[in-house]
Give the backbone structure.
Amino acid sequence: MRDQRKVDAGHLKLIGIFHLVLAGLSIVGLGFIFLHWLFMDSIMSNPEMWKQQPNQPPPPKELFAMFKWFYLFMGGCVVLAGIGNLVSGWCIMKRRGRIFSLIVAGLNCLCFPFGTVLGVFTFVILLRDSVVEVYEAAAGKPGGEDGGLRSEA
C-alpha cells in the first residue's frame, strides 16, 4: 500500500522543479526574440541588399517600427511568464499560493508544448483533495483557500 502523502510530496516537488525549469527556458526564449530582432534589423536597415533586387523596393521604415513594438510586447510576455513560473515554482515548494499556481498553470497551457504539458499536470496534481489538504495544513487554516467550499465528489 502506498502512502498518498509521499506520492503527493514527490509530485509537488517535481512540478515545482518543472516550473523553475520553464522559468529558465523563458530566458532562452527571450534570447531567441533578441536574436530574431537583430536579424530582422540587419535585413531591414541594409540598403545594399535591396539594391540587388531591381524589381523589389525596400520596405518602408514604418514597417520595422511596428515590428519593434511587437518584439517589445512579446519580450514582455516572455518575461512575465518567466517571473510567474519562478514565483509559482517557489510557492509550490513552500506549499503556498495554490490558486496563484493554478492561474499560472492556466497561462502555461497557452505555451505549446512544454507549458501545456506542465499546465495540465499542475492542474491534475493541485486539484487533488489530498494536495488541497496539504496546502490547508501548511497554511494552518481549516477552511483552506476556498473557504471550505470544495465539492465532495
